Amino acid sequence: MRRLLTGCFVTLLLLLNTLVLFGPLMVFALLKLVAPGRLRDYMSWAVMWIAETWAEIDKLIFSLCIPTQWDIRGGDDLRGDTSYLVISNHQSWVDIPALIQALNRRTPFFKFFLKKELIWVPFLGLAWWALDYPFMKRYTKAFLAKHPELAGQDLKITKEACELFKRQPVTVVNYLEGTRFSEAKRKQQGSPFTRLLKPKAGGVAFVLAAMGEQLDAVLDVTVVYPQDRIPGFWDLICGSVPKVIIDIRTRELDPALWQGDYENDPAFRQTVQDWVNQLWTEKDARIEQLRAERL
Where is the Phospholipid/glycerol acyltransferase domain positioned along the sequence (predicted)? Predict the structure, then answer.
């Protein structure tokens, strides 16, 4: 009963925080739609400040209401005035609060690349646009075979969407596995890793091609749940997650990782895939090491 009451109470506080701050965010989002020139950048800053404040209040709710220990390791050199690419493993919706705990107001507010169609989602589409989430358009190989004149247009559109980041720092988050980890998925894939699914290099190659020159470093983030099973978000807000380890390692970005054509150059594609696989091999070993601490 106590677990249920805690979950309901925390849910109520999280919803209240969202409802209170969503209104001001929408106001500045609408102002941004009509603001000219430099004023639009100020509206972007206001929207970002509201989003960061929302995340900080969520952190306060968690610290006051649930006993979870957020064991954050590394990241002592994080800065708010530079741009990062975050590469993380993905197991649960708890991964998002974990990133908020580790990175909010220590790095620029993080962003995800979204499909262009999502901009039409009521309210949320406007919020994501106001938060300067890049909306990307990806053409399939079959579509490009019928319309070869559009080759390269998807990357051009995404680069144009990222123009604002030349005037403000950004943290871009990329989950290379493309979906949440489970043992069943790992076996179905035939993944060579013990605690990870196979990484997809295409997504990160697209981000690097669009934004490589604007990114200063890679934040290699590893999220580990020492308990026997991967917890869900309800487990977290009920107070049933005793500890979450967030390991952060800052890695330099080699310019060679975006100075090529991933789609059409096999040698360059292999270079990016080798880099991603090496990251994943090291991350798999690090997960095993961090989990072994509880034994």
Answer: 84-226
